[in-house]
Amino acid sequence: MLKIEVKTDDDESVQRLSNFLLNRWKKQYENARSKYSKAEEVKKGEKAKFTVELTEYDLGNPTRNVVLKRFIDTFAKQCGDKAADRKDEILDISKNIEKALIDNDKDLKKYSDKARTLLYNTKDDRNIELKRQLMTGAVLPEDFVKMNSH
Question: Is residue 3 part of a domain?
Fold first, then answer.
């Protein structure tokens, strides 16, 4: 639980208002924290709750198919138990990222190197916020594939 200490004021109306606002903020903070962290976070090693047959999404190139599958698996893991319910969303973001990758660089070697870097960063459990932003559209696939890792 979030603990906040504030200075007290002798005016009772100021105390009531500040307590009201702080309690309201605490509830919003806890709701947002549980919504975006706990609900989205998955224990290491947990398997995705659904699988995708890549024959439905054959991109005509084995390398591109593997990259697509790895993005699907990464986002499915991010969604945990809700992966099956969010299957369409997971497929859309994964396909959009893969398309942005190939549009960004047609050279398969550069494509593979960039895909490897992006997959590494999205698989990292410390990057839950990045995955959430990709899933919600706050970070667009076109921008994501142009990002550099630091």
Answer: no
What confidence tens digit (pLDDT) does each residue in 18-66 have? 778 777 777 776 666 554 443 344 444 444 455 555 556 677 888 999 9
- Full domain range(s) for residue 136: 54-144
Distance, in Å, from the CA atom of 51 to the CA atom of 67, rounded to the nearest integer, reads: 15
Concatenated DSSP letters of 11-67:
-HHHHHHHHHHHHHHHHHHHHHHIIIIITT---TTPPPS----GGGG--SSHHHHHH
Give the global pTM: 0.63
Same structural domain, 72 and 28: no
- The pair of structure tokens assigned to 109 is 């070697």
| Residue 21: predicted pLDDT | 77
Q: 128 and 74, same structural domain?
A: yes
Question: Could you tell me if 35 and 58 lie in one domain?
Answer: no
Please check whether residues 101 and 34 belong to one and the same domain: no
